[in-house]
Amino acid sequence: MKKTLESDCSELLSQSFGGEQARLKLESCLSDMDAVSSKFRDLLQEGLNELTSSAVKPQVKPCINLFLSVSHNIEEEEFNDYEANDPWVQQFILNLEQQMVEFKAGLSPVIYDSLTSLMTSLVALELEKVVLKSTFSRLGGLQFDKELRSLIAYLTTVTTWTIRDKFARLSQMATILNLERVTEILDYWGPNSGPLTWCLTPAEVRQVLAL
Questions:
Q1: Among residues 64, 74, 165, 175, which one has the fewest Cβ atoms lying within 10 Å of its Cβ?
Q2: How many domains does the chain have?
């Protein structure tokens, strides 16, 4: 809007409407508009943060914590059973969907999209916490990788924001948990990392290897 006003007013001033004094008044008004707009953006962000903390997190966190009740230290029989009867992620996605439908009905598209971005950040953070409290077998790591891919695929459909960066750490944890031998990390680390940029520190990589 500001750019449109600048363009329209500049055109008028170029046609000698108002002169120098009018130009200075215009610049002052546009500057004030910038300040007010910035304050509104800050208030909006503060409100979204509060909404995420007070309304989204209390609903999302318990559902993520259910991940801890599902064993990922599994063998082939349990892995096959999980494939036929998903133990966690599909119900979690359903819960997220139900919650976001309620918000979507009462928010403008722009604000709703900003809220979904904050929600995805919250989901990634809380899921990382429970993963680091879990124990994984090789097949359990594969199960987690499938769960993570399903979750990312769903969240990609509900927001225009890029979310893969938010889940980069979790994706790298899944990669580590899928290694058959600890020494295979050397195929991905250091000079062998290729285009991969590690988001996990060496200490965090060792922590995940020990799960």
A1: 165
A2: 1
